[in-house]
Design brief:
2 domains; 269 residues; two-stranded antiparallel sheet; alpha+beta
């Protein structure tokens, strides 16, 4: 605590009985006033007294960890509180929006694939390339796995819809691929991709971008919690250090072997 003597009013008294006077002044009640927001505590005599209470750094940290901005509100930093709350609301709004957009586009391109990409047409091409009977699907799948790095999934899962647009071996399954190309090699199709496949890939890419944006929004929300919590703790700690109290009291002073009284105002912080 720092102490500053702001002013002193000196009242001269005789040197006789100085010791008793000094004792009297030391025992004189001191009047303290807070230069910060205060609370009132009830004393043993039933009277209420002002008391400055520093705020809890731990509470501020926990408050903003749960709800960004609430720790700043607790600390009395209202503008920053609004800022952190706004970032939190915006992050979850965009997460919801991008997630919804991603799912809508995903439903769209999956419906598009179910309409314009044919497993039967794809297995017709595999049968032609392998020389295996079109009716022996197990043998066709085994040949496919030996010939290519990727095999068509039996279930229409996320990988199923990714592969039919991503890899050239599935190009033949698209409805706008000319059936006369069945005997051609994959390199030919690589130079002449299905236009439906290309459109399908743009929609799948748009869905992936929307989901990535949703993930970015969640990351922003998490960072907002962390930054808000640290800032709330810092703000409370800084404010606690600024709490000041002024005390008004008499104290004895000596000058040239004589005792004087001084009315002193001291500020501690």
């Amino acid at each position: 605590m720092k102490k500053i003597l702001l002013f002193a009013v000196l009242i001269a008294v005789g040197s006789a009985g100085a010791t008793d006077w000094e004792t009297f002044m030391r025992e004189t009640p001191r009047t303290a006033f807070s230069l910060q927001d205060t609370i009132y505590e009830e004393g043993e005599d039933g009277e209420y007294y002002e008391e400055v209470m520093p705020k809890s750094v731990g509470k501020a940290l926990i408050f903003s960890s749960v709800i960004p901005g609430s720790g700043q509100l607790y600390a009395g930093s209202y503008l920053k509180s609004v800022g952190f709350l706004a970032i939190e609301a915006a992050s979850w709004y965009f997460y919801s929006k991008y997630t919804r957009d991603g799912r809508d586009i995903e439903d769209e391109f999956e419906t598009y694939a179910d309409t314009y990409w044919s497993e039967d047409k794809y297995w017709d091409w595999i049968a032609h390339q392998s020389g295996i009977s079109r009716n022996d699907l197990t043998a066709l799948r085994n040949w496919e796995h030996d010939a290519f790095s990727h095999g068509l999934h039996e279930q229409k899962d996320q990988q199923y819809y990714e592969m039919i647009g991503k890899y050239d071996q599935f190009n033949y399954g698209w409805s706008d691929t000319d059936a006369s190309l069945i005997a051609k090699d994959i390199p030919y199709w690589r130079d002449n991709p299905s236009t439906k496949r290309l459109y399908y890939e743009t929609r799948r890419d748009a869905s992936n971008k929307a989901f990535k944006s949703a993930t970015t929004s969640v990351t922003a929300a998490i960072l907002n919690h962390i930054v808000s919590a640290l800032d709330a703790a810092y703000t409370v700690n800084r404010n606690n250090k600024s709490i000041a109290e002024a005390t008004l009291y008499f104290e004895p002073k000596r000058m040239e072997s004589r005792t004087y009284t001084a009315l002193t105002l001291r500020v501690d912080w």
